[in-house]
User: Fold this.
Amino acid sequence: MPLSGRFPSLYPILDSSFLAGADDRPGLLRRIVRELAGAGVRILQYRNKSGNEAEILSDARAIRAAAAPPMLLILNDHPALVAAAGFDGLHIGQTDMPPKEARAILGPDKILGLSTHNETQLRAANSEPLDYLAIGPIFATSTKANPDPVVGIAGVRLARALTHKPLVAIGGISLENAPRIRAAGADSVALISAIFSPGKNFAKTTADFLRALQSYN
Ligand code: TZP
Ligand code: MG
Assistant:
């Protein structure tokens, strides 16, 4: 579990749907990683809900090739590909394999995170071999298919009271609401559409978020 020091306050998640139709997919991945790293991002998740293993591995390797430490790279959903991609960890959800099984595949040195959506799941996750917990959706989101009910800022406060593990808030997070979420006790905010939407400047957007969150660092 190589998470040392404070969990990075900003956790961008690159969903593969953002890459659809790109003329130069590895080139776009390279540009994204370099712009985020240049802005100060220290953790990035790659999430692909539709591609086959070959596509996921190829994207992940392009991301790995462009990213230098200290940026931590987390793969969504595919424990068996983490080592092959040279990634630092895995993120799983409630319908994926149990954390202990994922940990057995990853070994002790990789980061493992789990999505939770309510008090029961948070309490259960506390005693699992997990390096961080995500809670959400905090606000309404159109990024995730069939999202659980929103938990709001009160859900962040409750989650903070229930776990000592690093806590990542996700779902509908914007530049405007991010500071309130951190103030409610989340260590980090995870973002998909706030960063990865057509026409966004990745470097500027992430720098704006890091600035908005910096009083909490
Ligand atoms: N899990 C809970 S909400 C969500 C996921 C993957 C989607 C977050 O996307 P956005 O665009 O930041 O609301
Ligand atoms: Mg999953």
Summary: The chain has a mean pLDDT of 96. The pocket of magnesium ion (ligand 2) is lined by residues 76-77, 92-93, 96 (CB under 6 Å). The first strand starts at residue 10 and ends at 15.
